[in-house]
Amino acid sequence: FEPKIRGRSSIDIHYSAHLNGHPHMGTLTSLASAFAAGEYIQREFKLPSLVKFEALENAPIEKNQVGDREYCRMHSPHYVEGIPLSEIHMRSFSETLNYLRENTGVGYEVEYYEQFQKNPFVRKTLLEIISRENEFIPFIAPSERLLRIRFPCGECHVMEKTSKDSVVVENRAPEYVTYQSVCPEHGQFEVRISQHDNNIIDFNTSIRNVIKEAKFIEDGRNSNAMNLMIDGGDWTGMAFQVMQSLDLLGYKIRDLPVRIFTPIIEDWSGAKFSKSVYVKEGTYRHVPLEFLDYKKFRETFGVSGLETVLNETRRWIEDPKKLFRNYSVNYLRKVFNI
Which of 57, 70, 229, 242 has its CB 3.0 to 4.6 Å from that of 86, i.e. a possible disulfide? Predict the structure, then answer.
């Protein structure tokens, strides 16, 4: 960190999570690692650090296959008793964030995907990627050869996940682009992308990561902050994609955020402890329910559970050989004495 932090006045720590469920043990350890890193660096360099939590309420739900099209909606317009499902899941994250802030002295702020995608810089960079898609596609869409940009129907919020229905009907990039898309129930509709439109635009992780890291660089220049990104170890490949694309946007390697990849929590097979897998009946039947269900975690361990997670990740941050490796569920059983 020392070469990157010279002359800086603060540290911005970036962490993102999909609001498609309550945090399980893998999410808790990576999020706690972000605060433990902030606490450590803040202490070592005597500079304030802030976790910038990117809350992704655009995770797909209600998938419906129609031929070769996959239609879905985001979590945010899916309501349970009048409350967006993403907000229900965010309650658990907020509880965890508040605990980590209070016990590390590292502050945090939240930005939702809807706020992010409306930002003029985000729209400007997206338009540049569209205008130069042949240059970017080999890095951010090498297999599909298609930029995944999609648009929810204004009436029912359904969108085509694979972007096969997203057709450019007017291309004035980098000023603006007009797309046509199709809702299976309400038919064709058009959406314009420009720097100052407020239309909801969804795009996949590869595009989002390129744009958000470019934004981090620009924001860091304006606020004189060093950028640190905290990701799980399964995101290392994405970092390569983003690095190549940022080069196309004119950023140099010294501009890029510092990155730490946190340990992957592995299941019995050695695979990543997955939020999307554990919901399948019986898949993790031998794993303690406390590691899967945040409510059960809190019922069993109370506040001391979050304390255990934080203290464990503090040990990782302070000793690189403990940070740059993975951990099994059985290891965590011993940590929690279950």
Answer: 57
